[in-house]
Amino acid sequence: MATSKNELLQGTLDLLILRTLASGDMHGWGISQRLQQISNDVLQVNQGSLYPALYRLEQRSWVASSWGDSENNRRAKFYSLTKAGRKQLAEETASWERMSAAVARVLSHA
Amino acid sequence: MPDVLWLRRLVGSLRTRAFEREMSAEIAAHIEFEADALVARGWAVADARSEARRRFGSVAQAEDLCRDSWGIRAIAAVQQDLRHAARVFVKNPGSAILIMLTLAIGIGMTTAIFSAVHAVLLQRLPYVNGESLVEIQQRKAGMASGNLGVSLPELDDYRRQLSSLDSVVEYHQMWFNLIEEAHASRVMTGVVSSAFFDVVGIAPVLGRTFRPDDEEPGAEPVLVVSHSYWQRALGADPRVVGRAVEMNDRVHHIVGVLPPVPQFPEDTEQNDVYMPVTACPFHARAAETSDRTMRIVSAVGRIRAGRTLADVQDELTALSRALARSFPDAYPAGFAASASSVREQLAARARATLTALMLASCCVLLLVCANVGNLMLSRLVPREHELKMRAALGASSSRLVRQLLIEAAALGAVGGALGLAIAALGKGLLTSYVLRLTPRATEIAIDRTVVLFAAGATILTALGFGLLPAWRVARAGVVSLGRHPTSRFLLVPQVAISFVLLGMSLQMTRHLMAVVTSDAGFTSGHVLTAQLDLDWTRYSTDETRRQFFRDLLARLESMPETRSAALSLTFPLNDGGVWRARLLTEDDADSEAPQVDLRLASPGYFAAVGMTVLRGRAFATTDPADSRVVLVNQSVALRRFRGDPVGRQLSLDAGRSWKTIIGVVNDVRQYGLETAPVEEVYLPFSRYAPLSATLLVPTGKDPETVLPIIEHTIRTLDPRQPLSRIRTLADVRASNVAPVRMTTTLVISLAAIALFISAAGVAGAVWVSVNQRVREIGIRIALGESPALVAFRAARSGYGPVALGLAAGVPFALAANRFDDAASAFQPVGPGTMFLAVAAISTVAAVACFAAARRAASINPIAALRVE
User: Fold this and answer.
1) Which one, B161, B591, B651, B669, has least CB within 10 Å?
2) pTM to 2 decimal places
3) For residues B642-677, b (16+ Cβ closer than 10 Å) or e, as one string?
């Protein structure tokens, strides 16, 4: 799949995962589908890097996981946002907005 | 939160297998979801599967990244490094074993000595009120015997007038006969105030301690037994409370058993039982007198809350000044009362020795550190090739450093565990040694603190010796490991420390030899000595006692196995049993004449202990019982009579009566092999016939065969008469030097370890330098340099640090000389000994250098040039 789709900035994937989980518990594949869907296929998540990111978030206690049954009756590991994760999401969203606003200003005025 | 994270990581890492299983399942599920979605969009099932797998990418890579995220990789890497370390050790077991043994000895020695320091100097006393206990001591300037003790009227004053103490209790020690079911034994008895155990803070393990009503006149006599006596003589009977025994012709009931705590106040004999003061017949007699100079008890007080030792001392000084004004006769000039902390006092004799040993063993541990660091470096040299290769293949230097540190940690862990085992094995030996210095030795234990100390020492040591090679690898890469001067400079302090320890141990050995072989004034060793204490109720008159002693000597002398026997109050190097008096000659009627020791001797005494009658004669059985004859020792003859005193007169009671000198005997070191003899007068035993006596029987080579005969003889005379403290003179003499011998042995062992380690270090450095220069040496030999010269050059290269170390050691040895302390066995190191130590270390280092340099001479130039 030789796509020229945008590579995700370092650390951005974490933010996106947290945001995605804010709307409800999800398993890994669900997260990747949802990201793709919402970004109108602009953001293609490298599936190989999705799980390391999830594990990293879990190690930091921002997400929690448990095994459950999916809609089509498959066993899957579901991730949910923790309280600390919610706080982290708020902080990172704010900083992302500051950052993108600044970048946008530079691009339009320089 | 970070704590939780850390814990989760730990738990997570312990659950490695579960993690792997879950991860695989999750990734498999993901691929299934993807395939399901594709099927839903119309793909064929098989195609959907392979497309889903393709989209996911490399599962292995993703898994690796996941493991990294989870922190498992670090654990696995450590496991790998450990396996690698094990492989390296297996390939080169010699140096690994050497390192572990060196560590074990260093850590073991230090831990063992720390366990003693901890028990004796650091730990709180195992009594509830231990920290606030003081002993009131009274001394007179110029008297060698130290604490005089306290008389009962003085005790009364201290109890009433010292407001800084909330209670003052008394204590003294006596031997009594204890008869249980017609079996007589001799028990050491602590005679104490009823409040004694409450004030000190000792709770019984069985029954009770004393109550105030035990001390009332006419109270039922009761006993509290020590833990060791309960176990040894009473079979640890849990129902011992209430048992009746006979003592001093009265029935006593056992009311309690003490816990196993060190005995206080400190006495050379361990107490078997305790009785309240009113039950002690001697105390009752003393209580009738108002004589302030009859100082027979120890006074122990507890500092009132909020007051300090200094307060007690101030009050005591003021009070004793007031007493001296009221009773000038009882308090001559130079008399002083002082308060001494019991905790300090119990540790006093051990402090200097233990501190010095701790310092010495820390030195050895430092040396172990330096040396093992060197060994680790030298282990790297043959692996230089491997390390370079690994660096070239992309191993990061942090990985190499980590690996070296893991090797050090693994070696350190094994060494530390072995060291702890050494300390635990040596505990019994150490306790028996320290017991000669302080009763607190019984508290020595490998407890939590000691284990923590060993762990701390191990970690510090491992860091010490592991960081050095790691630092070198990190700094210089792996290039030219051994060419750095660090390894040789590390030898300098090693040699210096070895030198100081060797100097000290040589000096101590010389001193010990001098003490052991010194002329103490008595030559016999094969003499059985035994304490004989007559029952004061049945032998209340001089004549009954005299009769008993006369019969005993006559019977023993008539038997072929014994043939001779003697009686006295005490004997050389034994404690107690000495009377003192001022000696007046006819010439000087000076009432301030110095005191002399008075000793009792039966006619056979001088021959029995191997003393010489230099002039005149010894006592004779034919001397009448009331004869006024004495012998004096040489010091008295020389100082008081300036020549031959035989036939002249002396007085021991300020001129009221006079005695005739019939002979002169040689001086004897009565108080210790290192203590100078004092002036002595010998009085005939039969004239005084005391209640407590020492029986001396020369035995030939085998005292064991004679003892039953003596015991039988005594039984036939009086079946209720026990013998106690049975020892030979040789034993007494040996135990007199035992603490010195033990300290010396410890320091010698430390010095030997240090010397061995340094020699290994020096040899190792030479060996490394030869190995690195194989090619250069090969070329030299090929060009015709003689192998001997090559070896000499190689050896010389190792000798530089030795010379520097010796030079650095001299000022240290001089500094250590200031540690000269009368209470310890340490001796200042003289120039002769220093020279000897220099010669010894030079020789050992030279042997080590040449042994290692032999390799240089044996290098085959052709083979050497083909290397690499």
Assistant:
1) B591
2) 0.63
3) eeebbebebbbeeeeeebebbbbbbbbbbbebbeeb
